[in-house]
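Below is one such protein, fold included:
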Amino acid sequence: MYKFIIIAILAYIIGSIPVLINDYRKYGIELAKGFLTLMAAGMYLNSGLSYLMASVGVLAGQSRSMFLKFSGHTTEAVSLGIILYMSPVFGIVLIMTFIAANRFLKDYGQSVFATSLIIPFAAFRIFTSDSFVIISLIIFAGIVIQFWPPFLEKRLRSKVLYDALIGLGVLSFIIIFFFNKYVYKGFGMQKDIIRHGPHHFKYVALTFDDGPDPIYTPEILDILNEKNVKATFFLIGKNVEDYPEVARRIVNEGHTIGSHTYSHRSLIPLTAKGTDYEIKKTEAAIEKVTGVRPTLFRPPRGVYSSYARRLLKNKRYTLVLWDLSAIDWAELAPKEIVSNVVNNVKPGSIILMHDSGDLIKYRGGNRYSTVKALPEIIDKLRAQGYEFVTIDQMIFLSELMETEEYSHEDYLGPIPAY
């Protein structure tokens, strides 16, 4: 994680460098700041989180320069440079839109504001990476604050918008802290939730969430087949419907499948009807495509409601979380994913990885690093004496598997062959 902090600090320093000329060259230099900062972040650590930290850093430096007593300049040119790096076509569209708006409005600030209005709507359609979507929303928020139309400025800008920005910042910090500390470590303190297997045998279970994916899941299956490893895949119902051949391949090659809801929606805010839909529709989709009714369930982000637990219990599902996350959702470098697993594994670990998905959307994440890290993870864990099992094998191994309420310490016989 320290590498992301380094990226943010260096980006802030770059953004803080003042541009002392006041002609058109100023905008070109500031645009280059944004573009080159993201390019450098990509060269140093090519991940969505590295781009996000670089963007926040350079925008903060531009608006609150350390060389100008933490005052600064507007961020529209730097923002355009960032967008041009993420999508040159989108950046050119914004430039053309600004030119047209400026001819009509004949006011620079209002033209920038008007142009920015298309950013949030276009971002969700153009970008498949959640990090790029979030960066676009940050850019939009910054421009709105800086270029709010004068006739509304006195009423809203000084009070409502700044209060909203502060509130949004605090809320974002809380959400990031919550997800990092709890959600991606398997949140949920109820006693009947499975987090890991028995600690006295050197068995571990590889689990993959958010698939099937047409690109990354087949590559992961190839690696597992080559290494003679069976894993557990928690599937999203919509993805099963869209990529049935990949879902069938998972089952045909002897891996275990579980449900991960139909659309990757968090279960906590859902109504009873919405929860029923997510669980039952996924079950129907998986059974129709693979011929297998899932009996394992993992809630998106590890978060679940009391109603969901009751429904799952009634439908005889086993609720499975994890005790070790590869943190590959952050699109870390392969060596960092390997380190996260190998340096923190223990007997009975249920290891969380992803073959698709992203922070906001249920598909579209870059899982290249996961694919690259997987062979090394398998080899290094085997070198430490670990063997790989599926979740249902792990349950069989200790009858009910160790939970937070109780554990069965007696070995009940060999793992069934698959």
